[in-house]
Design goal:
The complex is a heterodimer of chains A (288) and B (375).
Chain A: H1 3-22, E1 33-37, E2 56-59, E3 61-62, E4 77-84, E5 88-96, E6 112-118, E7 137-143, H2 144-150, H3 157-160, H4 181-189, H5 192-195, E8 208-213, E9 220-221, E10 228-233, E11 237-245, E12 257-263, E13 275-276, E14 280-283
Parallel strand pairs in A: 1-4, 1-14
Antiparallel strand pairs in A: 2-4, 3-13, 4-5, 5-11, 6-7, 6-12, 7-8, 8-9, 10-11, 12-13, 12-14
Chain B: E1 2-6, E2 11-15, E3 25-31, H1 40-49, E4 62-66, H2 75-83, E5 88-89, E6 92-93, E7 147-151, H3 160-164, E8 170-172, E9 179-181, H4 191-195, E10 201-204, E11 209-212, H5 217-220, H6 227-230, E12 237-242, H7 253-260, E13 265-266, E14 277-280, H8 287-294, H9 298-306, H10 312-319, E15 330-334, E16 337-341, E17 347-352, E18 363-364, E19 369-370
Parallel strand pairs in B: 3-14
Antiparallel strand pairs in B: 1-2, 3-12, 4-7, 5-6, 8-9, 10-11, 13-14, 15-16, 16-17, 18-19
Classes of the chains: A alpha+beta (288), B alpha+beta (375).
Chain lengths: 288, 375
């Protein structure tokens, strides 16, 4: 190296080193989702209690294992904090999303997120994409469209298309007393999914659904795990709190795992077309 | 993907599931030449099945004017463009089906209509294919053309909606081949609305599930024809069952028209779904258009149909359309009488080969008064 170049290199090196010596060393990135113990679960995503929980930045990867696959990466990461009590566990999921997508219609999809846990904590975990036969996973799923309904969006076509007009519905006939069992029975005839008790079909009092799966394509509503949740728009995207009962056996499990998924409605992500994580170490031991 | 046989394109093709034909397959024949686009079928379906919330835009049955009419917008053109030019060779199809042309990560080649695509239910109505010059007057044959295409779900042998659904929420009934969405299982992913090339699955935004034509199965199970068939004032439709070509039964009206006389053809057979609604093509539209829409048999079908006045069997069977609410799995001609029958031969209805014509003089000499057509 010629002398002039040597001087320039040394100068640049000092330029970077000097300020670094004055800063605090950043903490090493977490290698696990760690739930801190608290006396209660915060219901809101902006509660101060979340600051006590360490933030884990979960890198999201394409769901490209089964058709229909997501071919283009969208949401890069989801930031996760976890708090637990003796009975419940809650997660705050935050991710960047430029658009609020909370209305599902023929061509539009809703933003959503989910957490996934093995139903049983065994030495080998289920397949990370929705579990596998005999190795069930439990999923807690939040949907922005359901959130909008819980927050008051109505159940009429004019709630979606304000200028729509409808002449008549058979179940609004004058001969049927509004709200009567006969009237409700008639309305069900024209909403077959609702008549069959499909939880997708509402009416909804929660934006969250408990699900189980034994592999891709098998997702099914689960017996309630006491899941609750609420999502709020932030300056850059979504902050969603999801809580459920503490999974049985998790505290004693040797190496519990958890996974997350995020759907960006603007990118037509739905169902299997999603950004997801692999299994992530999940520490629910009492934190100091 | 499995390898299955599709007789409409005369070759094996790739499909998501192995070949599993139903015990019987619901099928229908629509005579396009008789349709006047009165939309009575559309209303019959609408008032029976889709009067609920979230179903406002759904038309499980619609009638559109071809070449420009479409519901949803450009449902056929968009897919044809996606698929690109393909080739028939004689009666066999050498091009790619929508299953074989599926892009990476997808099960089927398709596109998903949005709410704008459903905003113009009768766009292109009565628009003809050519320009009407100033001074043009009535001329036979017509100087330009259009025709009405009545459409329902084709209850395909290889449904793309069924293949597209990642959770198996769509199924084909083994007893009659009717394709249904399980409303208890559907989670509204809309893969089916993207995959169905005929765009006959509709997303209900208020229940969050997809819904489609059910071939009026509560009626069909009771040997009754569907609402859109029953209410068709042009009597263009006949419902029944279709056999495989090698097992065609001439006494079966659908088999006779599709397999024996080859006068009724599937809609876009090149897509590869083996659709089970068959159309008698319009006699006045150009062959190139009909060949693209109904396959290479279009010209021969029209030639056969044009000779129907001198063909008592064909004319007779066509006169049986719309003459009974009951499904007629069998038919026969006895001289100038056509009989629709049950599978065991029990008679359902009989009609004359040609309706008798009575000419009423315009002036009633007895009462010394001009007759009018109003009762």
């Amino acid at each position: 190296m010629r002398p002039l170049y040597r001087f320039v290199v040394i100068s640049i090196s000092f330029t970077f080193l000097l300020p670094a010596g004055c800063q605090k060393t950043p903490p090493p990135p977490l290698t696990e989702v760690a739930a801190v113990k608290a006396s209660s679960i915060p219901a809101k995503s902006d509660a101060a209690a979340w600051n006590a929980a360490p933030e884990f930045v979960a890198k999201l990867i394409l769901q490209d294992l089964v058709e229909p696959r997501l071919m283009t990466a969208s949401t890069p990461e989801v930031r996760v904090r976890a708090i637990r009590t003796d009975r419940e566990i809650a997660f705050r999921l935050e991710w960047e999303d430029a658009t609020r997508n909370d209305l599902a219609d023929p061509g539009n999809f809703c933003d959503a997120c989910a957490i996934q846990l093995p139903q049983k904590f065994e030495p080998t975990v289920p397949a990370p994409q929705m579990g596998e036969a005999g190795k069930t996973v439990e999923i807690t799923y939040w949907n922005a469209g359901w959130q909008a309904k819980v927050e008051g969006r109505g159940d009429a076509i004019t709630d979606i298309y304000p200028n729509a007009t409808v002449d008549h519905y058979p179940f609004d006939a004058k001969s049927l007393e509004k709200g009567s069992p006969q009237q409700q029975e008639m309305a069900k005839r024209y909403a077959p999914a609702r008549a069959l008790g499909n939880a997708m079909a509402g009416p909804r009092d929660t934006p969250v659904q408990d699900l189980i799966a034994d592999g891709p394509g098998t997702i099914t509503p689960a017996a309630a795990n006491g899941s609750k949740g609420s999502g709020q728009r932030t300056a850059k995207g979504w902050a969603v709190v999801l809580s459920r009962r503490l999974p049985e056996g998790i505290a004693a499990a040797a190496n519990p795992q958890i996974a997350f998924a995020v759907w960006d409605g603007a990118k037509e992500e739905v169902g299997a077309k999603k950004m997801r994580t692999a299994w992530i170490n999940f520490n629910v031991k009492d934190q100091p | 993907m499995a390898r299955v046989y599709n007789w409409q394109i005369r070759r094996e093709m790739s499909y998501w599931y192995p070949e599993n034909r139903p015990q019987k397959q619901f099928a229908a024949v629509f005579d396009i030449n008789k349709c006047i686009a009165c939309q009575t079928c559309t209303l019959a379906c609408k008032t029976t099945w889709t009067s609920g919330k979230g179903q406002e835009y759904m038309l499980w049955n619609n009638v559109e004017s071809k070449p420009y009419g479409c519901y949803p917008l450009a449902w056929d053109l968009k897919l044809l463009k996606q698929l690109g030019p393909q080739q028939w060779n004689g009666g066999g199809y050498e091009g790619r089906t929508i299953f074989e042309a599926a892009p990476a990560g997808q099960r089927v080649l398709g596109w998903r209509p949005d709410d704008h695509d459903f905003s113009y239910p009768n766009v292109g109505e009565d628009d003809c294919a050519g320009k009407i010059e100033n001074g043009t007057n009535l001329h036979f044959p017509h100087l330009t053309w259009f025709f009405y295409l009545a459409r329902i779900c084709n209850h395909c042998t290889y449904p793309a909606c069924l293949a597209s659904c990642p959770r198996g929420s769509i199924y084909k009934r083994p007893e009659d081949g009717i394709v249904l969405v399980d409303q208890g299982r559907c989670r509204g992913y809309r893969e089916c609305t993207q995959g169905c090339p005929y765009k006959k699955v509709f997303f209900n935004p208020l229940t969050g599930t997809s819904e489609k034509c059910i071939a009026c199965y509560p009626k069909f199970e009771n040997k009754l024809q569907q609402q859109c068939f029953l209410n068709c004032i042009g009597k263009i439709r006949m419902a029944g069952y279709i056999s495989q070509p090698e097992n065609a039964i001439p006494e079966n009206p659908i088999d006779y028209l599709v397999h024996v006389r080859k006068v009724a053809l599937p809609l876009f057979p090149q897509f590869g779904l083996e659709p089970n609604v068959y159309y008698i093509p319009p006699i006045h539209a150009p062959d190139s258009f009909l060949r693209q829409m109904f396959g290479p048999g279009a010209a021969a079908a029209i030639e056969t149909y044009r000779k129907a006045p001198d063909d008592p069997d064909l004319a007779g069977l066509l006169s049986l359309f719309g003459c009974s609410e009951q499904v007629m799995p069998r038919w026969k001609r006895e001289n100038d009488t056509i009989i629709g029958a049950e599978e065991n031969g029990a008679e359902i209805v009989r009609v004359p080969l040609r309706e008798p014509v009575y000419i009423r003089e315009a002036f009633d000499k007895k009462y010394n008064v001009a007759r009018v057509n109003c009762p």
